[in-house]
Model the fold of this input.
Amino acid sequence: DAKTTQPNSMESNEEEPVHLPCNHSTISGTDYIHWYRQLPSQGPEYVIHGLTSNVNNRMASLAIAEDRKSSTLILHRATLRDAAVYYCIRGGLNSGGSNYKLTFGKGTLLTVNP
Amino acid sequence: DTAVSQTPKYLVTQMGNDKSIKCEQNLGHDTMYWYKQDSKKFLKIMFSYNNKELIINETVPNRFSPKSPDKAHLNLHINSLELGDSAVYFCASSLIGTSLLYEQYFGPGTRLTVT
Done:
């Protein structure tokens, strides 16, 4: 049970921004939101994670809703290399449960058009 | 330098055989993992080892046995291979395994085909 909901697929044009949504309405107070992506024929790679505040790194930005029930991964300028499956995952510290495991859902398949 | 490496990249074998997949990380991480990605592309954790000690063991048939000779290596041995074992197997590592705040680094995968 991935406990997050994402659209199955999205499409974007090269050099345009992409907003990938994720719903995690049952998220607990200690769970972070993590994003990984899997390029074709490769292993997943880490993108970004956050708890409450918006986060930026060299790859992307993460915008987290004030109620933390949803978040959006933002790729500011999509390139062809960004075509991948993007996974939104909730989890964090080991609080005696299993929320420190990466539980992958179906993810969102992002297609980038030239 | 490859951070997490796996060998072999492809493995084709017959039902009933025993095979191993090797994984090595040169990141100095304490925790290593094995994941299975099936034909429907679902990626699921199988095992996790922290400093050679098993910390996650999902509902995996006991034909699958991870072996960690040291914290830089986590090999996956599979006995009596079945058709349903065909999948891509990914090895991963992270600095600390009991917190997702430490990102996981994945290997390139081993595509296992059982005929």
About this structure: The longest strand of chain B covers residues 43-50. Chain B touches chain A through 22 residues (CB under 8 Å). Chain B is about 0% helix and 55% strand.
